[in-house]
Amino acid sequence: MSGRLFITAFALTFAVALALPRLSQDAMGGAEAPEGGQAMGEATANAAATAPALPPARYGATVEIDRSSDGHFWANVLLNGTTKRMLVDTGATSIALSEEDAHSIGINPLPSAFSDQATTASGVVQVARVHIATVRIGDIERADIPAVVIQGQQSIAPLFGQSFLRTIDNVSISGDKMVMR
What we know:
- Helices cover 26% and strands 34% of the residues.
- With 181 residues, the chain is α+β, with helices and mostly antiparallel strands.
- A hairpin with a 2-residue loop joins strand 6 (123-137) and strand 7.
- The protein starts with a helix and ends with a strand.
């Protein structure tokens, strides 16, 4: 009897643990706007209406990315329901977007929000710190991921950096393949 009770309690706890990320993501719909950004609920609601239907993210999912002919790893990443082709940069501290890319996913920092500086390969740039409500690559999805918007940079490739990658248990590169688990 106590064994059956333990298994039932374990199954219930496991089910709640799986549901919590989705519940907290849904609860963020009414969250206050992050510094310099706009409320994520509005962006998520707008993006959800246009986003393609995807299978639910799975616990323990694996994503494999092949090295492109330019020697880099590029991935199609869903940001607030909008697909962006991003350069996976394990050396980048954060997800980094141009103002144009940020606007396309519903994030519009005020000019006064560009109060921080970051050093890039091109030099020092002004950035606004923001949060992306949902970020998904393959079957791996996370909520409320920190990012930066680079002021005035329209020709940069969006960078998929450590603010997301550190949420994954393992990122490895072997030969021409990057694997995230």
